[in-house]
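Dear support,

I submitted the protein below through the web form. The confirmation email said the job was done, but the results page showed an empty box. After a refresh the structure appeared. I'm attaching both so you can tell me whether what I see now is the final result or a partial one.
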Amino acid sequence: MTKTFEEKKKEVLEKTSMEFRDAKEAMGPMQKLMDNLEESGLLRPHQALPVIPGYVAQLVDYTVKVQHTIPSDIIGYFYFRNEQFSIEDMNLPNDILDLEKLSEYFKIGLHRFEFERACIIGYKSQLFYLKNKLTGMYLAYDGMNDLYEVWETKAHKFTQQEIGSMNTGSYEQIEVTE
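What the results page shows now:
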């Protein structure tokens, strides 16, 4: 049996609220968030997952994993950072999160919505092509640990995490826009 969008939405709300000590307390804000996302057009049935940078994906994973954490509270940490408290006061793991980059990211309103959507419906990691600065050719991967150069049409799409683990000195990152 295939579930309708409304059934799936209700299931997500119930599952999320169960993670809180007082499910009734959590259900109100979560329902309001879901309704607002749906009304604004940011949440639709069979909607593509938001594409977010790796450093934001780390925060999404942290937010989803840690109980009693609501995405809008996390955004509030960054929004009021300079007025009420500093990065050190955020109680976020600054050893695994790039808090300065996240602070810049959340200055853009659409990014805040994308973060909340990613916490609720999941996300796709931002992908990049690697282009050789000298030859103009792109890096490809054969799936067996072999890298080689090809023209753009056969280029491999790499995540930021994959790129970070490679020696990419003569390559420039080009964001995949498709």
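Response: this is the final, complete result; the empty box was a page-load delay. The chain has a mean pLDDT of 77.
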